[in-house]
Amino acid sequence: MFCDGEDLYQLKVILVSEATKYGEIVSQFEYFRDLVDEACNHPEIHEDIKVYLKDKVLDTLDEALTSLEKIRATEASITKLEPNFVSPIKKHDFEN
């Protein structure tokens, strides 16, 4: 994923940047998930709106998973250069 020329500092900058992006995406996911919950509790809300919001939840979930994959790949690259590296980004239950 990374060029051989990327040094440890560059990889850590990439990690921080992607972790920030991931946090923003997770916030969006939670926002849309909350809107879906609200919409489902109000039968007067048109079904098309509910479908749209559910699609947004799935889209942001996909974005979050893609970002998380980039984070894990960056961590692996850092670990090759710094074997004792411990990522500040916690593992999720759904990860292996």
Task: Describe this protein's structure.
This protein has helices at 8-40, 47-81. The protein has 96 residues and is mostly helical. Helix 1 (8-40) packs antiparallel against helix 2. The radius of gyration is 18 Å and the shape is elongated. The two termini are 20 Å apart. The model has no long low-confidence stretch (mean pLDDT 90).
Q: List the uncertain runs.
A: none
Give the radius of gyration: 18 Å
Span from first to last CA?
20 Å
What is the general shape?
elongated
Number of domains: 1
Average pLDDT level: 90
Helix content class: over 70%
Biggest beta sheet attributes: none
Number of discrete helical segments: 2
Instruction: Provide the structure class.
Output: mainly alpha
Briefly characterize the structure:
By secondary structure, the protein is mainly alpha-helical.
Keywords:
96 residues, mainly alpha
Topology:
Blueprint: H1 8-40, H2 47-81
